[in-house]
């Protein structure tokens, strides 16, 4: 597994505002969207392309286009939805699937409650969107789910990661036999006893959409 923490002043600036407890939900959503677009630039660096011949106003030339099958963007519900527009803006021709997963706050284990994905992902590059790589259980389960359907290259885009989650994800996916990359704005210090990233930014879903009882 390859880990890329994006070192860029605009990424650091937007992340700092996201962390601030005084940042309201509308501002949080806007900045998360902007931050994801910056992360997506790095996440798509290895996107597959084919050569294509085109005619410019001056002369013919050779360019590139995204290969088929199209890349698949997979936000993990619900918090991943807040990252979708930022990713799709950079890759507008990509297709979008949805994966609903929830973490048990006592066991910290992830379970799947909803899917909207092609049955066959053979040859697909997939971009999984999950704001927080905390314990790593949810993301590991999501990646395994996609690989089981045939995905052969997976990049996860996360706003934040914890060292424990990175290690767990690496251990859980090491035998899958497909390239896996994690792109994040920062790797924080640790997890607390409740499985939250420290210093983190709190519950990303609640901060994006408000608290749902």
In short:
With 213 residues, the chain is α/β, with parallel strands linked by helices. The chain has 6 helices and 14 strands.
Question: How are the elements arranged and paired?
Answer:
Elements: E1 2-5, H1 9-19, H2 25-43, E2 49-55, E3 60-66, E4 72-77, H3 81-90, E5 95-96, E6 98-103, E7 110-116, E8 125-129, E9 132-133, H4 137-148, E10 153-158, E11 160-161, H5 163-173, E12 180-184, E13 190-191, E14 197-198, H6 204-209
Helix pairs in contact: 1-2, 2-3, 4-5
**What is the rounded distance between the termini?**
36 Å
Give helix and strand order, one letter per element, not per position.
EHHEEEHEEEEEHEEHEEEH
Share of β-strand residues: 25-35%
CA radius of gyration is: 17 Å
Give me the number of helical elements: 6
What is the residue-averaged pLDDT?
A: 91
Helicity, as a percent range: 25-40%
Poorly predicted sequence stretches spanning 5 or more consecutive residues: none
Care to count the β-strands? Answer: 14
Q: What would you call the structural class?
A: alpha/beta
Please identify the oligomeric state. single chain
Task: Please tell me what the overall shape is.
Answer: globular
The major sheet is characterized as:
8 strands, mixed
Descriptive key words:
two-stranded antiparallel ribbon, 6 helices, globular, 213 residues, alpha/beta
